Amino acid sequence: MEIERKYLVSEKDLPVDLESYDSHELEQAYIITNPVLRVRKKDDKYILTYKGEGFMKREEHEFPLNEEAYKTLLGKADGMVISKTRYLIPEKNNLTIELDVFHGELNGLYLAEVEFENEESANSYVAPDWFGRDVTDEGTYHNSTLSKLTDKEAYELVEKTKSSVY
Length: 166
Fold this sequence. Notes:
By secondary structure, this protein is of the alpha+beta class. The protein has helices at 67-74, 119-124, 143-146, 151-162, and strands spanning 2-8, 22-33, 36-42, 45-51, 57-58, 60-65, 82-91, 95-102, 110-115.
């Protein structure tokens, strides 16, 4: 079970020492989006992920893939391939902020996610000052939804998001 909250972040509010944190290069695409069936390349690892329905809390299962299987499934993906750098920023109470800096068609979009052990912790979480609006319950910012955008729609969403981070 995945329990997480998601926030927009403004470029001007990004941590100045971002490159000092551990990070991963991610490439991911969606075979289907409801329920979610995703393929992901995380650095040099390949993963198939199933995610159930929901926003803050939803079922999630991951399965390892080899490179050949990943490339085959990637060719069956519907929509754009999402590329991003994920920075792992330590947070209080042994939590980790996963800050996604998007590339390509979604360049200029910044999302922070925090995963929790239980719903109580998620509901009582107080976000740091540099986070923008909580978009946990906004399907617009699910990666599976983002993957369906055309280049023009992606550009328009990024521009709109820049002015509505708070």
